[in-house]
Amino acid sequence: MRTVVIGCNHRTAPVEVRERLAFDPAACAEALRSLRERFPCCEAVLLSTCNRTELYVARPVHGHPRIEEAIGFLAENRGVEVHEFSPSTYHYEDAEALRHLFRVAGSIDSMVLGESQILAQVKSAFTLAREAGMAGRHLDAVFQRAFAVAKEIHARTGLSSGRTSVGGAAVDFARQIFSHFGDKTVLLIGAGEMGEVTLQHLLEMRPKEVLLANRTPARAEAVRERIIEPTGVPGRVVPFERLSDHLVAADIVISTTGAPEPILRRAALHDLPERRQYRPLLVIDIAVPRDIEPEVGRLENVFVYDIDDLQTVADKNLVARRKELARCEEIIEAHVREFVAWQQSREVGPTITALQKYFGEIGRQELERVLPKLSQVSDRDRELLAQMLHRITQKLLHGPSTLLRDKAETGRAHLYADTLRNLFGLRDEP
Amino acid sequence: MPWEYAVSGLGTIGLIVATVYAALNLFRPASRAGRISTIAALAVLAINLGTVGAGIAREGLVGSLRQSVQSSLLLVSFIIPLAAIGRGAAGMRGLDVVLFLAAAVIEAGSLFQIGQPGMRVAYKSWFVSHQVAFAISGACFVAAGGAGAVYLIITGLLRRKHGLTLLGRLAPLESLERFGRWMLVIGFPALTYGVLTGFCQLSRQTNPGPIEWLKDPIVIFTLVLWVVYAGGMLALWFQPRMRGRRGATFAAAGLVLVVIVFVAMEHISTLHR
Question: Which whole-number Å values give the CA distances from B117 to A376, B71, B127, B130, B271, in the listed order?
């Protein structure tokens, strides 16, 4: 079997092209069914995310679909002219295809290096293909290996360490100060877009409560309904005028107002640590101009970070992740080599067995045809003749078998195996 | 005698290796550094416990633990599991570095205790618990001090906004504070028990008498240590101001005092030999 992938991603195709090639799960299942009807001998997995659409196919060496057929299938299925997206596509075969899949699953090929979502998306795509009966023995092995590679990359390298977005960096700060969030209160001041994004990240930590303070309570209420309510975390709108009281209750503050001057000054907050019983307070000031006077960060157990600090952390994390790329590639290469060798040996074994059986059967038939014509053949003679035929078969097949096994180690056995199958009309044993 | 030097020397080297690799593990969490550090520390633990065990088999429980070097090895043997707990618990990253370092210092200090005679006093076997209690309290105070030191380092990084790529690789401040407090809660009663049993034994001493024993520097410093920790514990419990950085500073400073009492004072004390 050959493994082939065709597709396009955020590097090769603009969003205008990607959106036309995108599949939702229902369309994906339908496309797989259609593919099976047209190419019954192949296996396929269709991966469609906002950044890529890829069709993974496993087919017999001289089977279908070929690259052009697969591209044509995608185009036809999505109602797009081939020439419109063909220049944006890439295709890989065999070891290259495996390497590509391992890179995708390991999040090396992602727009945000090391993000974890892609692995779940690959798993979903594979599950969908399996449910559609399109992921057989071959692709099952390929994808299971891809999941193992992704797991190893995440476990053995720092590719996923640190956050690479401003909102994520805020979570990193929070996790450096607090160990658990079930008893923590988050206070969102203002309702800026970045503040909402940051709040969404913090809501993943499941805080005890979220307080929303805004000069326009209706806007705060809208944020509560839109962002907080769906998560199930308790949230309530509190009066903006009593901000200092809310600061006493809060553990994490996100400030994102459009105020031209700082709304929290050190002079006004000098007694805040005492009122808070010296509990740590993390203040994330995302507003520009800043909402919090930087000197507030000098108060006991108060940690203040602005948008630049968050961006710096996000950038540094991205740089740190890039440094891990070489180690990730090493892991992937090792798996590609190992998998190709395993796959080839797995394919070669049945071919050799089928070949031996085929030759043995011819010998047996000829022996049975000749024996009745011979006079006075003892049992001993029969046995000797059978042994002779067996030895001839073994000697004839020794060369091809050795060659196949050698080629299995170099990863090119499938060409020879497939040729032998076609030449002699061999079929795998069930 | 040479084998004791070998034990302490190997132990010190092993703990230095554990410290270095524990630090490397912070920067490359997925590398083999963590495993190497753990193996080195466990090897030292095995050697120390083996040595203590061999000493007990040779000289009996009382005779063995009279030796200062044996007490130090025991102390280190209590610290290593605490560091391992720090390593194992996801919330205590970074603490292992400080604890392995402290253990290395104490193990190195034991090199200078080799050959010194044990205490020349007769005591009953129950009094062994005096030394074991001090070893437990010492290990707990070292752990609390280590947590305090890591707390101060992280606070410094957060305030100066330096080394922020380490975010998430070090223990959260909240975990460190809680761990430090628990160590003090366990260590202080052990210290109190050690002091009380010491006084019980002291009252039975005739040559030299109780007064001479009270003048022994290690007794004076131990009492100072007890008073300091008693005051600190009260403040930690009843003064919110002692939360966070101040509490961590207290625990870290206490660590220095503990090392003085447990290591340096062994050389100044004349009666505790």
Answer: 103, 13, 18, 18, 11
A161 touches chain B (CB under 8 A): yes
**Residue A376 buriedness (CB in 10 A; 0-12 / 13-18 / 19+):** exposed
Contact criterion met (CB < 8 Å) for B30 and A278: no
Contacts B29 to A, Cβ<8 Å: 158, 161
For the residues of B57-121, what is the DSSP string, one character each? Answer: HHHHHHHHHTSHHHHHHHHHHHHHHHHHHHHHSGGGTTHHHHHHHHHHHHHHHHGGGTT------
Please state, in angstroms and rounded to a whole number, the distance separating the CA atoms of residues B100 and B2.
24
A326 domain-assigned: no
**Radius of gyration from C-alpha coordinates of chain A:** 32
Report CB contact under 8 Å: B30, A316.
no
CATH number of the structural domain spanning residue A175: 3.40.50.720
Considering A108, A143, A162, which residue would you say is the last residue of a domain?
A162
Q: What is the DSSP letter of A361?
A: H
Q: How does pLDDT run across A358-401, given as a tens digit for each residue?
A: 888 898 898 888 888 887 888 888 888 889 988 998 898 888 88
Do A214 and A351 share a domain, yes or no? Answer: no
CB B172 to CB A179 under 8 A? Answer: yes
A279: chain B residues, CB-CB within 8 Å:
243
pLDDT-derived band at A14 (thresholds 50, 70, 90) equals: confident
Show the tokens assigned to A406: 């050698």
Q: How many CB atoms lie within 10 A of CB B261?
A: 22
Three-class SS state of A6:
strand
**Total structural domains in chain A?**
3
Do the Cβ atoms of A309 and B30 come within 8 Å?
A: no
Contact between A301 and B178 using a beta-carbon 8 Å cutoff: no
Q: For residues A304 and A382, state if they share a domain.
A: no
User: Which contiguous run of DSSP H or E holds residue A282?
Assistant: strand A281-285
**pLDDT for A210-262, tens place per residue?**
999 998 899 999 999 999 999 999 999 999 988 888 999 999 999 988 888 88
Identify the active-site residue in A8, A42, A50, A328: A50
Strands A209-213 and A281-285: unpaired
User: What phi and psi, each to the nearest 5 degrees, are found at residue A318?
Assistant: -65, -40
Going by C-beta distance under 8 Å and a sequence separation of 6 or more, which residues neighbour residue B48? Answer: B7, B11, B73, B74, B76, B77, B80, B107
- Do residue A135 and residue A46 come from a single domain? yes
Do residues A225 and A357 both lie within one domain? Answer: no
Q: Is residue A327 part of a domain?
A: no
Q: Is A8 a catalytic residue?
A: no
> In this structure, is residue A331 part of a structural domain?
no
Residues of A in contact with B241 (CB under 8 A): 274, 278
Last residue of a domain, one of A132, A162, A192: A162
Look at residue A329 and tell me if it is in a domain.
Answer: no
A260 CA: distance to closest CA in chain B (Å): 25
The identity of residue A346, as a single letter, is R
Per the structure, the complete domain to which residue A222 belongs is given by 166-313
Q: Which of B28, B172, B245 faces A176 most closely, judged by CB atoms?
A: B172
- Determine the 3-state secondary structure of A283 from DSSP: strand
Question: What Rg, from alpha-carbon coordinates, does chain B have?
Answer: 19
The reply to whether A181 and A292 lie within a common domain is yes
Are A18 and A157 part of one and the same domain?
Answer: yes
pLDDT of residue A430: 46
pTM of the complete model beyond 0.80: no
* Sign of the torsion angle spanned by Cα atoms B247, B248, B249, B253: positive
Taking CA–CA distances from A171, the nearest residue in chain B reads B168
Return the higher-pLDDT residue of B75 and A267.
Answer: A267
Cβ-based contacts of B168 with chain A (< 8 Å): 161-162, 172, 175-176
Residue A89: give its domain's CATH number: 3.30.460.30
